[in-house]
Design goal:
Layout lengths: L7 H13 L7 H22 L37 H17 L9 H12 L18 H4 L7
Helix pairs in contact: 1-2, 1-3, 3-4
Length: 153
């Protein structure tokens, strides 16, 4: 199995989901802390999978590589949230599954706070067998997908 560091856009989607569903405080400092924690957990996984990479910047992942200590939450623009099976909640589930896949490589994953939050998120959001050729996002969200106005740039 391979792994790569997810983008800050992916983290933004997860932070939105976790805070909206009440699993974490939604104030700005708490959202930044949550995003940093999720990003750090993903780095642990990728570093475990690629132990010979000399630095975090050389790991597989987005360019430029996000910095855990510099992460700041930016509210993503997602589909409508009009109930349990909404497009937004399906998008949250896709993001959670993607994040879990990239972050589960290291031995401490199952007992991590990130794993618990992502598992809880996946249990309450609808899993969809989306046709990924038709514009859904199985391997993460591009900046333009969730920040169309370029707010993260």
């Amino acid at each position: 199995m391979s792994a790569y560091v997810v983008s800050e856009s992916d983290i933004d989607v997860l932070v939105q989901a976790i805070t909206t569903l009440g699993y974490w405080s939604s104030d700005t400092a708490a959202a930044d802390e949550l995003g940093s924690m999720l990003l750090e957990e993903c780095f642990r996984s990728v570093e475990y999978r690629y132990p010979n990479d000399p630095s975090r910047d050389s790991l597989p992942g987005p360019v430029p590589m996000p910095k855990v200590e510099e992460y700041r939450y930016v509210e993503p623009v997602m589909g409508p949230d009009d109930g349990l099976n909404s497009i937004r909640r399906q998008q949250w589930n896709i993001a959670a599954r993607h994040y879990q896949y990239q972050s589960c490589e290291h031995p401490g994953w199952e007992k991590s706070e990130a794993a618990g939050l992502v598992e809880a998120l996946m249990k309450v959001t609808p899993h969809t067998e989306a046709d990924y050729s038709e514009g859904s996002f199985p391997w993460g969200y591009a900046e333009s997908d969730v920040h169309p106005d370029g707010r993260r740039d």
